[in-house]
What does this fold into?
Amino acid sequence: METMTQEPFHYQIYNKPVRTERIDHLYHYVGASKVGMCMERGRIITEVYKKNRYWPPILLRAVTLKTILEQMSIYIMPGSLLAGNQASKPNYAPLFPEFAVDFLEEEFIYGRPYFPDERPADKIEYSREDMPELKEMINFWKGNTHKDRLYANLPKEAISAQDDVGAVNIVNFMHGGCGHLTPPWPWLFAHGLKEIIRICDENIAGLEMWTIEGMEKNRFYTAAKTVCEGMITYAKRYAALAMELAKKEEDKTRKKELMELSIICNKVPENPAETFYEALQFMTFVQFGIQIEDNAQGISPGRFDQVMYPFYEKDKKAGIITCDSATELIENFFVLLSTVERMRSWDDTAYFRGKPIFQNLTTGGTDPETGEDATNELSYMIMDCIANTRTLQPSHYVRWHKNTPLEFKLKIAETIRLGTGFPAIANDELYIPAMINRGYDPKDAADYCIEGCAEPGVAGLRGGRTGAAWFCLAKILETSLYNGFDPRSGVTLHQNKNGKDLETFASFEEVWEAFMDQMQYYARIHVIMDNTTDRLWEEYMEEPLTSVLGCTLTCLERGKSIKRGGAKYDFTGNETIGTANAGNSLYAIKKLIFEDKLLTGGQLKHALLTDFKDMTTNPTGAEIQQMCLNVPKYGNDVEEVDMLVSKVLESVCMELPKYKNTRYGRGPIGGIFQASTTTVSSNTPFGMLTGSLPDGRSNGMSLSDGQSPMRGTDTKGPTAAVKSVSRCNNLLLSEGSLYNMKLLPQDLRD
Amino acid sequence: MEQSAGLNRLVNLVDYYFTLGGMQIQFNVVSKETLLRAQEDPSKYQNLIVRVAGYSAYFVNLEKKVQQDIIERTEEKI
It folds into this structure.
């Protein structure tokens, strides 16, 4: 590997991971299994729906999941100390035909635009022999999927805003559930699922079954009980498998390990977990169970160091665990989580390049009771586990606050230096007040963890809708420059109230007014899309397991699922894209046209519509592009442009909470929309849909990511860049902020 | 801890950003040279992980445009 040794100070490559033999084998075992498609879940759900499709949805969903958990293939990886799987092989994605089959037909059957194993990226292997069965499955579901219902329900203008203009997009939520939550681990570990079943039985016994409310609650409790029974069966199947493997095993140590695993799988999640090992196995089952239910992402282990520490401390004192054995178990857990895969359409992969699953693990932070720093031994061990495993899942965050010990900060920095992008850092002093500002109890807010990209939640308390529609400010700005007209699709959905365009705006105020007008219009479309999706989820795609394990106590108390208002806190998120492009463009218009008067609006309009390529004008298109690029940009500590970017973002942050989600007034605190600047990889596909912009960006180029300055335009060093980004009113970004910075390995070397 | 001057600078940058009112930050630590080499010869860089947005991914498995996005991000000197 000659190239590797020449690598300029690249830690990730030349600092080899330190793994035990077991973890190394597991890592390579998973890595050897290519990403593939697993037919099993699709096959089982199709059979259940053939038999029971007219049942009340929550009961149908419950019996479906229970049947899947009873029948799906299970395996225990060689050497693994933990059990659990989502599909028949590692890295295989189960099918969720109840959500959408159109892309399965287009891609798997017809190869349009590609057969999944021939995609240019994010390839999915599959067996051609399964295709006749898949075709039959598709035919059963066609016309009756969640996506079909959405297209039938959404107003035409909302569909056009997504499919023609490309200013908002919700495809991700047409293909699966929302997820984005953290189960209340301490409660689950202390009680076990048998306690949930007991509570359900107790509630059922007291229901007034002759009332509509009683009947609805009966459905919920019956469904919750059914899925918990399914989970217990799922675990006991592993217990039997482990015992069977133990009997055949010749290696004495492994035989003993498998027997111990068998005992644990018989015990949890039915019963409370008493040891670190049992709690971890409990968590593993729950992680997989929820992800098998409805293709959701962002199912998060949450504040792992806080939740697991009491078990670790107790076991260490009792002499049944050591730092090394716990580290190996955690690493084993990471490798297991990394086997999870999600089936996405080719179109959707553009928004989620590299197949993120977002099982987020949060380390550090404060104790919500005392407000003191909560870093413990496990916090440090997790950083080592990241360095040792280098798996893409789970995804990692640390909470950083005034009293985080310097030693831990340095440990975090050392982990970051490795270059895997883990962990990302959340500032407690912003996240907590931002949550309190939306109505969280201060103690709950202080216990937050990240679920998804950067969205805060609290274990067991937040549910509803964390991820939500993409909202492309760059595209929205573009339409406001042409009086609502989208040059690429030729569609006008909403004309500017002032009826003006770039050629006729008389002042910068009129430009701003038009942008606000379009922003408000598309925000309304965004809300229509999300609330329609939620309503259809509630009506047809109930999630009994996600509800009862995600927001356990409130769902059980109210006798209803999360989508009907079962969570303590419920907010619908947002994903704002192209903030830097929109702000920079507005500033360029202000400078070039209205302040310095170097160009007329007409000249700029023509240059944009010809992608800065018309060389017959004076100045030429290329010269105009250069003028646009020369205007100061966000990310360089230039207050005027930074404040404009901040104002753009603030306007979104103020607009969205005016809207209520479908759970408003039905139990949860919140019930409104709130903004974030998470983009995943959507800045690329949205860039392809967005024409040339006044910031000098050419037609089709990727937009700025997250809340970051437009790449390559932040040239005054990191201090200037962070000053700019922190000028945004981040307190209002209660759904999370995302800022990417790239550093050079050699700068961290000394 | 060995080699801690660079790490201290990183810690100070995060502290400074957060004192100013920054909410979240995440880092790629990789040079353009490495990324370009990985693009040219993916087989040798199968395990190279980069931060895309709110997640990390294997660089060589990313579609070209996303790779380009990461390559073009400013390399900040600290």
